[in-house]
Specification:
Helix content: over 70%
InterPro entries: BLOC1_su2
Protein name: Biogenesis of lysosome-related organelles complex 1 subunit 2
Distance between the termini: 155 Å
Structural class: mainly alpha
Keywords: Coiled coil
Strand content: under 5%
Number of helices: 1
Shape: rod-shaped
Largest sheet: none
Family: Belongs to the BLOC1S2 family.
Length: 106
Amino acid sequence: MESESVPKSFVREFLRATRMECLESNLNLELIGKMNDIANGKYKGLIEDVENIEENLKSVINEYQLSEEVVKEIEGLKDVLDQLESSVDFLEEMTTRIETKVKTLA
């Protein structure tokens, strides 16, 4: 049996096509690597943004809680002032009654 030889032009064309596919694969890998680097940079930026947002949110929550406590204290002070005002009104009424009694006794 005689073996058939493959024409050199066919082998050259096959090798050229294989080389082109390898080059294309390498270019695709380089492109994917660059895209990955860009995505990592953006992702890192997003992570930093999210961390900043979390810190700001914690700060706002703390301020809100402090504000809520201050509001409760102010409301408590308002109640105390209302009681003091009632006491002053009562004392004025008692003072007026005492003055009236003293005038009637004099």
